[in-house]
Structures are given as C-alpha cells and as structure tokens.
Amino acid sequence: MTFLIVLTACCTLLLMWFVLTPFFQEETGPALFEESGVRAGLYDQKERFLQVIRDLDLDFQTKKLSEDDYQAMRSAVSAELGEIMARLDNEIIGADSSARQEGQTSETKVE
Amino acid sequence: MNEFGHYALFLAWAFALFTMCAGVYAGVLGNICNPKALRWSAAVRNASIAAAISGVASLIALGWLFHSDDYTNQYVWQYSNKEMYDIYKVSAIWGGMDGSMLLWAVFIAVCGALVALRADRCPRTLLPWILAFIGSSSFFFLTVVFYFTNPFRYLKAEFIPPDGNGLNPLLQNPFMAVHPPTLYVGFTAHVVPFAFCMAALASGQLSNEWARLTRRWALFAWMFLTAGIVMGGFWAYVELGWGGFWAWDPVENSSFLPWLTSTAYLHSVMVQERKNMLRLWTVWLMITTYLLTVFGTFLTRSGIVQSVHAFASTDIGWMFLLYIGMVLALAIALTLYRRGVLFSEKKIESFWSREAFFLLNNLVLLSICFATLWGVMFPVFSEAVTGTKQAVGIPYFNAVNVPLFLFLLLLMGVGPMIAWKKASLSNLIRTFLTPFLTALVVSGLLVWTGVDQLYPVISYGLCWFVFMTILGELYRALRAQGHGEDKGVVKGAVRLVRRHRSRYGGYIVHLGVLVVTIAITASMAHKFEQEFTLDSGESITVRRYKLTLDAIEGRQTTNYQALHAVVSVRAAGGSDGELLGVLEPELRTYFRNSETTTEVALRSSLRADRYIMVSGLDETGKRASLKVYVNPLHVWLWIGTLIMVGGTLVLLIPRKAEARSEVFAESLAGETSASPQPGGRF
Prior knowledge:
Chain A is mainly alpha-helical. Chain A has helices at 2-20, 29-32, 35-61, 67-110. Chain A contains 4 helices and no strands.
C-alpha cells in the first residue's frame, strides 16, 4: 500500500513537472515544433495537392473536363501547391541556416 | 487500487481543465512566435498528454479491479462475478454506464494526446485552440464521470459480498469485447476534426487547411463508426434471436445519425478542397456530426427513450443538454463573427456538375438523418404535446428511409463520375448510357424471373447501374493512361489505384456499399421464416432443407445451465438427403440472476444463412418449438462492410517516402512539360 502511495505521488510529480517544464525553459520553440515534424506535415499537404492534380489530369484525359475548366482548376490547385512548396522551402532554408549557425557556434567554442 | 483509479481520474480531470483554460489563454495570446504564447502552448500540449496518461491509468485500474474480483467496488460487484470468463470481465469494463462513460472520456483524452504528440504538424496559430477544444470535450466527459458516474465508488454494504451480480447475459458475447470500443473510437475520434474546425473559426484561419489536415482523422473516425455499427448489428443478429440485424431501435439510430452526417462531410469536404465552395456547409456538417455523437450519448443514458440497448435511466441527461446547448451557442456565435470569411462567392454553375450532385447527396443524407431523428424523438414530442407516448416502429423508418436510400444509391452512381463545373451532353452519354441501359435489362430480367416487389427491383437495378459506372470509369482510365495494354489489365488497375488512391479508394468503399445494399435488399425482400414444433426424431421440410430434431440435450457450465436442441439439416428431396450440417440452438438459464436467454444456431454460406432458435421446450423435455429463418445472401452484409473498411484503409495508408519522391518527380516533369492530352496517353 505504502509502495503504491509513493509510486502515485512520484508519478503525479513527474506529470506536473512535465506539464510545467515549458515555463522554466529558456526556449521552448524547438520542443514544440520540431522542424522534421513541421516538414512532414507540409509534405503531407503537398502530397495531397499532387494527388488532386493527378486526379484532375485523369479527369481531363478521360474527357470529363473541358480544356478551359481543366486549366482553371489546375492552376488554382497549383497556386495552393506553390504556397505549400514555398513554406516548405522556408522551413528547409531555416533549418539549414540554424544548423550552420550551430556549427559556427561550436567551432568558435572549440577555438 | 480503487483509490488509485479514483485519483488517476481526478488527475485526468485536472489536466483536461488546465488544457482547456490554458489553451484558450494561449490562443488569445495569438502569435505563437511570442515566447509567452509558445510556453503556454507547450504546456497545453504536455497537459493533453498528461491527461491521456492519467485517464488510461484509471481505465487500467478499473480493469485490474475486475480482474481481481474486487467486490468492494460497487461497479465491479454490479457487473461481474467469479464464474465469468476473462473476456467478459473485459467487456464488463464498459458493460455498465459508469465504465462506458469512463472509456468514452479516456478515448477523447487519448485523441487529444495523439494530436499533441504531432503538434508540429498543426498550423502554429491553430494549435492552442485545437487542444483547448479537445480539452473542453475531455473536461466535460471527465466531469460527468468524476462527479456523476464514477466507477470507483465503494459498495455501500455492511459486508463484502463473496460474489458479484454478473454481467447481463445478453452482453456475454465475444463481440461485446470489441463492438463498444470500436464504436466509441468512431464517436470520439470525430472530436479531432471538430476541434480543428472550431479552432479555425476561433482563430479566423478559415482556409481549407483545417479540413485537409483532418482528412485522415475524419476517415479514421468514419471507418470505426461504420465497423462499430455493423458489429452491433452482428451482435443483435446472433444474440437477440429475432433473425434480423437492425430494428431502427433508438440506440442503433443514435449511432447511425452521426454516421450519416459524417458521410455527408466526407463528400462535402471534397468540394471545398477542389472548388473552394461549401465552406460554411462543411464547417457545420462537422459541428453537427460532433454534436450528434454527444446527443447519442444523451439518448442512451438519459432514459428519455426506451431501448433494449439503453443504460438505466439516470439524471445526467440535463448535463448533456447543457453541454450541447453551450457548444451550439458558441458555434453559432463564431460563425456569425466569421461570416465574412465563411461565405463563398463561388456559385454552382450547373446542375449537371459534380459539385451539384455532391450537394444533393448531402441533402439526401441529411434528410435521412432528419427523418430518423424525428422517428427517434417522436415519443418524446408526442408525450409533450398529447401526454401519451406514441412510438414509431420499423414500418415508419422503412417507409421514409428506403426511397431516400435508393435515391442516394442513384447519386452514388452519378456524383463521382460526372464532370466538375459543368458536364457536356456527350460526357453524360458516354458515362451513363451503357450503365443505364444494362440496368434496365437487369431490372427487366429480375421481374421476368419472379421478383415482383418494386423496391427490390429498383435496388438491384441501381446497384447494377452504379457497378457499371465504376467499371466504365476504370476502363476509360486504363485506356487513357495506357496501363492495360502493356502490363495486363490487373497490373494496370493496381497501378491506377496506387496512383489515384483517394479516387479508387472511394470507389472500393462504394463497391462495399453496393454489396451491403444487395445483402440488405435480399434479406429484407426474400427472407423466409417459419415456426413449428417437433418431437424428438421428427422431421419437417422448410424450403430446400429437411430439418430433423435428433435430440434435446442438457449441459452445464460454471455460469449457466443449457438445454440445446440437436437439429440435423439435410437437403430436401429423398429420405437420405445430403447432410448439410448439425445446428444446436440453446436455451440458457444463468445461475446468478435466473435469466433465460436464447442462443441461436447459425450456419452461413455465401448463398444464405440458416438460422435456428429454440422458442420453447415442453415439460417432458422431448418436444421443442423451433423458429427457422432463411436469410438469403446475408453473409454479404459482413463481407461488404469489410470491403468498405478495406477501401477506407486504402485512403488512409500514407504513401511511402520513395513513392512520394517518385510522384513528386513525375509531377515536376508534368509541370514543365505540356498538359496531358484528353483521351490519349502521357
């Protein structure tokens, strides 16, 4: 019984520490938004747009869409895809520059 | 362990409260680049995970109490006894209201944790709001559990009873171990798209992103809801002994209502994604779906409707109504506040377009939803107006919903095949003329072979029509992309499905719906039932089968005493017809509460189900009244559901990284090269 009480108390403290720890960290950004996760989310969205474009292509090939409708819908989806690609590029460039900065900092420390 | 479970439940409740309040605060702080907002958001994310951990711990504690037959706990004493098999002790966790509410609340908390664990995939401004809305749902259900339906209460008795009451015998079926959790996953997973939708409203980020990001969650929830509903039907079929699987019972309907709106949402969201239309409509379909899941809980647990499935009448109904009212008021207020962004300027240009048919499909689904809801609530309304409770039965639901379903079937054939924006006459003729003419021929053949009822003929004809449209679509796509010629039709079709997963996954689901429809039509229209009494050794011919009552035998387990009739089934014609099988329906009497149940004996084949139950035994024990059902094509109902689930899995499975890059390369090549030619190949 005592063991269970101690264990419960420890678990409670652990959970509370887990919840409140962001308030005691200097920087919580990377912990909340891992770059790889953000990129994975954007890749998912990009894949979805590509799927939509492929479906539109198929609709056009099977003569379900007129040339005008097809071009209009494809360019609208492509514009949204472009937006996602730009965000993805920003994430990749951001990750590269922060990695470079980290590298420079560690080199300076070594020196 | 009782205290531990209670305490874990309290912790889950406290963390859910923190998630809700801190989430709103972080959301109001807005810009997540602000370190303060970022810290609060991170704390909210961690609190969501902590709430789920605590909730799961409380559920494990309850499971442990059942496993250890701890009858100091009132809930365990009420729903378990020592003779029950372990699998039924697992079912007993959600066999009563308290445990089922705990399971529901924990599932919502787990959904919150799963979203929190992938927080980096959510838009930064939406994240705190999303977690706040999931947290608020979790907080509501945990409040109900903690204060009103707490399963960790001690038994109020002067001594600890040596054994418990035991689970209701009707629930002592292996399917009860999987049906409720599956259904609850379906219900509770809808909280995620709902939270994204409300977060989009609250933050003003009303682009299509919220719908795109929750597509998998919505499909996942729909798949589980579908599987859960059909599993419930299977349980009713084998356990309740009336030869059917769906009785339009209020509790069955309460799971069917959100399924209808969820199906409508999945179609509407495609129009939003492709055409940037129906945004307000889509938002409200998701809000309605979520509210209907909560309303279903209210129906089942408030005692306002009578049902074999309903939990005992309780006084928690007002809490659900209050919650539904609050969510509804908030959703209306946010919609009015964001009306400028929500209303789309785009209009449907032609009736003969995919968007128009998807909207029509939505309207039919909502009509079925409304008609069913009206039927469910009619006893309540009639009592309020006339003072007398008047229930509506199966005939009402069938009379209203069957024609609507048939119309929906027609739309299922037309909607996905017709062009976006505006279909030309040549497009319509090319796509629909052959399916339409062959469907007419099939219907005519059915009438000629003796099917004389209108609805079955229409139903089979429409199923053929839809099947042919899907087949035609596949054929045209194979030809257009040249897949069928160089590598064979099957390989070409597989490649096509892989390339256009969302489209062909949807068609697979539609094929499953067709199979289900044929099975339901056959079992409704051509079902055969007969009741008779036989002495031991006596035979009777029922349609193509000769049934002989070989013996009536008794057997006993630790839990119940059973009398089972041994019935041999032979092909009719001649005294020594081929033995098709031996069926042993039972009458069970449970020792604990002296309840008697009937256990049906079932032999399924692809052609028909032979279903026998004992409706009575005489005092001598040598004469039995038996009821026989022959349900044609019934097994296809379950097969069709598996196809639907399989189709949804095709939609859900993510593409592998290498496949992505291959597609991406193809797409880039496509972007730079000329557009594909209609009717030609790349």
